[in-house]
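Moderator note: this is an archived Q&A kept for reference. The question asked for a predicted structure of one protein chain; the sequence and the answer are reproduced below.
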Amino acid sequence: MVDYFTASLLILLGIVGTLLNDKLQYKFGVLIGVLIRIFMKKRRIITEQNLKLAYPEKDLSAIKLIVNESFKNLGITAIEIASMKYMSDNRILRKVIGFEGESIYDEAKASGKPMMVISSHFNNWELPGFYSSIAKNNILHMIIKKQSNERIDKEINKIRARAGTKTIDMDNAARKIISVFRSGGCVAMIVDQSALGDKGVLYPHFFNIPSATYASPAYLALKFDANMLLVVIIRHNTGKYILYCEKIQTEDLKCDDEGVSILTQRHVTALERVIRQYPAQWVWQHRRWKRMPKVAENAN
């Protein structure tokens, strides 16, 4: 019943958001974010805890400011993603007003090599894939983990399918990813949540904290000599976006344990650098540091 209500609310938000112009949609998203912060106490506590870990040098007032802005950002993101199902392609694409690093992206696409695109829950995380598939004619094969709420999972996958984005279930991804890479295609993965299990998990430093991260993006990039790109979308006060692309250096690394470890740290560091520039635009509401290396746990 809770899942049904949550999915129905998301659909309703999408319909309402579509009826609003971009400025009103932005303001409505801010209101939704404020309400989430007020009523979801658990997420507010997690957000504060994460920020205190990431920014030990900041005082409580500075932390609170980022918390408040982060929830507003979460509300804006929620209304935008929910509305994408009903908005025209042109209206969605008009939200992107610039592309920093477009030449890097185009060169990687034209190189003939496969592409490993890493991204993050940074603003509207569905928009870069949508833009890539439609505006850049580069179909993404997105590695996803199914959400526990099946109705929401289906709604979001409809948005991806509409743009041409292909989804690959994380639990059965190996063969499909290899096939995509061998054909010179593009695989995308959001890499900022705590990795599960022990196999294939590394602990690079993210905000100076060992952070459980899947090794597979780095391993695959090195194994198949793929271009690795960090792609996120940065929101301006107008509610419009700049797409940001950065190439992660791979040419000096071998496909061995050391190379995979170094490359994993590189892409995590690149993401951290962007988040530090725009801290309120990342989703601090999930438990990024819920799993620590066993050595650190034993020391504690």
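Archived answer notes: Residues 130 and 225 are 25 Å apart (CA to CA).
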